[in-house]
Amino acid sequence: MIEVTKKALNTSLTANVQGTNKNIINSNYIIKSHELIQQGFAVYLLSQGTNTPYKGSRGHLDATNDVHELTDMFLKYGANSNIGIILKDTGLVVLDVDRHTPNKNGLTSLKKAGITPNFDNEVMEKTPRNGFHVFYYIPKGFDIDKINHNPLPGVEIITDKITVAPSIKLVDGGGIGYQHFGKKFINANLMPDWLIELVSNVATSGNTQNGRIPKYSVKERWQMVLDGFTEGERNNMCVSLSGYLLRINVDPNIAYAIVKKVNESSDVPLADKEVETIYRSAYQREKQRRLGGR
């Protein structure tokens, strides 16, 4: 007769906690969260499969950059909780391009606006609904508080907080995860000129798409010609003046000469190479705009 020895139930609190901690350590969510904290981000938890805070929690208001506090949160709510990071005061913003429906396709909206961005070298994440988040650093001197957060249908600039991979979202009854591409968030590139110009158009009251006014008035642009670019606003001004001159059909060579002259007369000029890059970008945008019939 073979005796079967039953293993006694381990009722040791220490052993149970160690077992839980082992599951926590093996969780992709906690590993990713620790990496994000090491990059300098404050992390918060959300209900698994959603962008909703756990009942009784404060969501993003509970964000922490303390590994021990975060681990306690995972122990409380679960090892596979969705995770988000705080963007505010990090210098990062996120370009959110939706592709949910034909009527809300951010890529189509950008194309209609004469913008064909290349995201190959950007830090980005694909969202569960087939959109994507592109992470950018804010250029020095650019006032992110005065931007148009929804410049086009399906295009949004997010500046406060964002859900990140490996979080999942329940879509049509199944869980689909966020997918990270490219480098770490801290290695993101600066906002490109086309995006700066796009979000610098602030909507007039009552309409978020039509009747948009530029960041600088016509009078302010011609004042730049007289006074040069202002330190802290040089990039924005250079972008704005370049685009304006081309849009009013100033000969491209003459427009470039004007922009260079204005920069040279500034108290603290931009580097010649930077002016050339900004102008080339503005020229390509205007060229694409005209080809697109806008």
From TrEMBL:
Mind telling me which InterPro entries this protein's record contains?
Answer: DNA_primase/pol_bifunc_N, PriCT_1
Question: Which Pfam families did the record assign?
Answer: PriCT_1, Prim-Pol
Q: Which residues form a coiled coil?
A: none
Q: Which residues form the Primase C-terminal domain?
A: 223-288
Domain DNA primase/polymerase bifunctional N-terminal stretches? 33-195
SMART domains per UniProt? PriCT_1, Prim-Pol
This protein is called: DNA primase
Instruction: Please name the source species.
Output: Leuconostoc carnosum
